[in-house]
Every structure is written in structure tokens, then in C-alpha cells.
Amino acid sequence: MKTNTKKEKTKQKIYNALIKLAEEKNIKEVKVSELCRVADINRSTFYLHYQDTYDLIEKLSIEIITEFINNISEKRQIPERIDFKKNPTLLINYQDLLEAIKDAQKAKVIVTMMLGKNGDPNFYSQLKVALWRLLAYFFNDYLPDLKEQFPLVPDDYLNIIFFDVPTEIILHWLEKGMVESPEEIGAILTSANVTSPLTLLVDKAKE
What we know:
By secondary structure, the protein is mainly alpha-helical. It is 66% helix and 0% strand.
């Protein structure tokens, strides 16, 4: 996160204090006095930025997700059309998305903390919705090809096949602390295991 101004540097101190305290207790149990002690700031300084710990967690969640999604959205490119005859298994080129996701590693510590056992369960839900919408934004141009190839499959089921599985994989990767490289996650996302439901549909159509 950017720390160019005095205000941002103070907020970063508070974030770092929250990360440290989350090693020992749930972040919702952290007191303002503890944050100020670890961050080495006055309570009055804390209250210039946040009303209380809950306000801190809520604003931090919004900031992380917004920055994460915006960084990735800026790198969106128009995908090529899918050629089912040449390759019915590898349906999506995730490379653009994965290159953008590398930016998420800059916030690795704080994202891992928010998703961890002492983090905020609401953050997981918020991030899941944001990731789903991001994937839909990235790959929405593929949908006409899918609908043309599988006219009998309702849109809501195509959405589950196309967006839900990648969302869960990316969330799991973030929750683990981004242990694997973006390239490794790309290999997983584009594997036959991910696209097997559509592969089965292709095979069914050939019968």
C-alpha cells in the first residue's frame, strides 16, 4: 500500500500493529489501546483516522479489495475467441489475469492476516464477491462463444462452471498465503480439472 504522505504512513503503522496483534488474538478482539501501544502513536492520532477497531477493519477491508481489484482491472485485455475444435479443454487464457494478480503479492501479509483464523470472516465473503465480479469482467467476452457452443445449458449454470471454480481456487491461494507462484496457479486454473465440466459437455455434444 502507498505510504507517500504522513497520513498514509500513520495508517501503515496501524495496519502493521494490527497484523502483529493478530498473531495472538482475533482482530475483532484487539483494543484501540493495544493498537496505539504497538504502533507507537497517541489515541488521538488513531481517532483522527478511525472511530474504533471495527471501523478500522471495515475500512481496511474496503481499501484492500478496492486496490486489489482496481490494479487487476486496469490490465484487462480483450480475449481471443475460443476454438473448441482445436482445444476443447483449455478454454481460458488466464495469463493477463495472473500477471495482474502478481500485484496482490505486495499486500501478501495483510491479505493473509485478514483471511487467517484471527482475521475477519466478512472479508472472505466480500473478497469472494469481488473476485467473482472481477472474473466476470475479465472473461465476459467469452460468454457468447460458450452460449453458442452449449445452447441448452442455462446461463446460471455456465456462470458456475466458468466463474465459481476459478474464484474458489484464487481464494484458496490467497488464504494459504500465496505460497504458489502466479504461474503455478495459472497451470492449475487452466488444467483439465478446472474445465472438465465443459469438456464433458463437449464430449456429450459429439455423441
